[in-house]
Amino acid sequence: QLGSRISQLIQYDHVTLQRETISSKLLHEKVTDIALGIRQQTAHGFQFDYANQVDYGLRTDMGLVSEMLVNLLDNAVKALPQQGGRITVAEDLNETGLTITITDNGHGLDEQAVDDVFEPFVTDSELGEDDHLGLGLSIVKRISTALGWRVALKNNSGEGVTVSIQVPAQDIER
Q1: How far apart are CA 57 and CA 167, in angstroms?
Q2: Is it the case that residue 1 has pLDDT exceeding 90?
Q3: 18: which residues sit within 8 A by CB, 6+ positions away?
């Protein structure tokens, strides 16, 4: 598994984008399908909410976006408490572009780790504890860079994490 993840990490440095325009409805369905699919594989349930769904066209590589969403949602789920877990996805569309946020109510991150989470092999899990190798967020960062998007993470003071994906206006069709 480690070899394939490292290959994937390297691959995103040299990716050829397959851009197409997808509807926001398709993206909303994809995000929901990923979250619900992950929920079926977890021992504990969690509440999932997709708030503020907006209508737009997104010019992007859906395969790369799907990979990014799987990594982000998987990380969010792994951080959730055993009971009362909650993940909320929201969108904000304005003149500068689209911001997609994924917020969980998990344990949050160690403050010292926040600056390094997008580096390879940085994880808050013990290696092998949950198949968490610390490559997911570095892959997310490389994909967002390849797409010309920005991704940022904000620790919510022990009340989970919010990841923001900023898509520039040039990739949005209204």
Answers
A1: 12
A2: no
A3: 61, 63
Closest C-alpha to 52, from 97, 96, 100: 100
Q: How far apart are the first and last CA of the chain?
A: 40
Whether 61 contacts 22, CB under 8 Å? no
Please state the length of the chain.
Answer: 174
Question: What CA–CA distance (Å, rounded) separates 132 from 134?
Answer: 6
- Give dist(CA 146, CA 144) in Å, integer: 5
Instruction: Quick: pLDDT tens for 125-145.
Output: 543 444 554 567 888 998 999
**Which of 103, 122, 104 is CA-nearest to residue 113?**
122
pTM of the predicted model as reported, rounded to 2 decimal places: 0.86
